[in-house]
Design brief:
By secondary structure, this protein is mostly beta strands. It is 9% helix and 47% strand. It contains 1 helix and 10 strands, in the order E-E-E-E-E-E-E-E-E-E-H. Strands 1, 2, 3, 4, 5, 6, 7, 8, 9 and 10 form a 10-stranded antiparallel sheet that branches.
Length: 138
């Protein structure tokens, strides 16, 4: 199990940022989805300040939500898919579900996560990314 630091909204809800972007040969991203892999609706989208490769959309998170973390060097990707198993004060406990490295998955992810994985890879390769890539509008 891993832990990740949570943010709190003004109303005190636990939240995480979609963040990341690419540089010339490297990049990273963090995407947050519902338990079934569908996009979440953000509570806030940043349009000002230092946006390049930063925090772009804030999402309230719940137990069961999925976090996809991606990094790459010259498009050689490492992808980690986590599930939030518990939320305590300022931290969430994560369970690693799937891992992609050296060109293969340890256990292939389900089909419903493929759009979010694609969005995570796109965000990690988006040069100086300044906007969210996987969220529900409206």
């Amino acid at each position: 199990m891993e832990t990740i630091r949570l943010y709190r909204t003004r109303k005190g809800h636990p939240a995480l940022w979609e963040q990341g972007g690419g540089a010339t040969n490297t990049g990273y991203s963090q995407i947050i989805t519902n338990e079934d892999g569908t996009p979440k609706k953000p509570v806030y989208i940043r349009y000002r300040g230092s946006l390049s490769q930063g925090e772009h959309a804030l999402f309230i998170v719940n137990i069961g939500d999925i976090i996809i973390k991606t990094d790459h060097h010259r498009k050689d990707f490492n992808i980690y898919i986590y599930k939030i198993t518990s939320i305590e004060a300022e931290e969430a406990e994560l369970q690693l579900l799937h891992e992609y490295s050296e060109g293969e998955w340890d256990v292939g992810p389900p089909q419903n996560l493929l759009p979010a994985i694609t969005a995570a890879k796109d965000k990690a390769t988006c040069y100086h990314c300044r906007e969210p890539h996987y969220y529900r509008q409206g």
